[in-house]
Specification:
Blueprint (H helix, E strand, L loop, with lengths): L1 H13 L3 H13 L3 H5 L1 H14 L3 H13 L5 H13 L3 H14 L4 H13 L7 H8 L7 H11 L8 H33 L1
Helix pairs in contact: 1-2, 1-4, 2-4, 4-5, 4-6, 6-7, 6-8, 7-8, 8-9, 8-10, 10-11
């Protein structure tokens, strides 16, 4: 029952039918649905999305805070809510969730990758791209598309005279070169195996 109801509520949110989504949440809550009590994190996330869409950012913020306090909510669910928020122009709230997800699950690269993507989409609005990019480049296989986007942004006129960003550009270049060599070696490996 729970997954179907969550999907139904989310369908209303994606269709921008926020009053309907809130009405369903209220109805299920009044029924005392056990699946809602067992999944408070995702329920609070859906409430936040519906309230933000309804033009109630303060109420949405309160539910997001509750959601982040729920340690049972998976990193993947947090990223899902963050992506939904970005679709609704809730970049600030999405950023807050990704920062929380990264702190909660520091060994998981997904929140960091999503965070860098959001920062690039917002032209480094939060001025935290540099440390996150540096951390991204320590991953075994940092996403080359994100690094190329970062290189384009940091090479723009906005950053051209900033010495810190010049050093970061060189670091990105070096990382992209390493990734290119690694990909080439991976493509050549099957050929050498066949030859052997």
């Amino acid at each position: 029952m729970g997954p179907f109801c969550f999907a139904l509520i989310n369908t209303h949110i994606e269709a921008q039918e926020y009053p309907e989504a809130l009405a369903l949440l209220e109805e299920f809550d009044n029924e005392g649905a056990s699946w809602m009590r067992a999944n408070q994190g995702i329920t609070n996330g859906l409430r936040a999305l519906a309230h933000l869409g309804s033009g109630n950012p303060d109420i949405a913020q309160a539910y997001l805070k509750k959601m982040l306090e729920d340690r049972t909510l998976s990193t993947e669910r947090l990223i899902f809510i963050s992506n939904e928020l970005q679709e609704m122009n809730g970049d600030d709230q999405a950023y807050q969730i990704l920062i929380g997800a990264q702190k909660r699950d520091p060994e998981n690269p997904l929140p960091l990758i999503e965070l860098v993507s959001l920062e690039l989409n917002t032209n480094n609005k939060y001025d935290t791209l540099k440390p996150h990019l540096e951390k991204l480049m320590t991953l075994n296989a940092p996403p080359s598309d994100l690094l190329r986007r970062a290189y384009t942004l940091l090479g723009s006129d906005r950053y051209i005279y900033n010495p810190d960003h010049q050093a970061l550009l060189k670091q990105i270049e070096s990382t992209l070169e390493k990734e290119k060599r690694r990909e080439q070696e991976a493509q050549q490996q099957p050929e050498s195996d066949v030859a052997a």
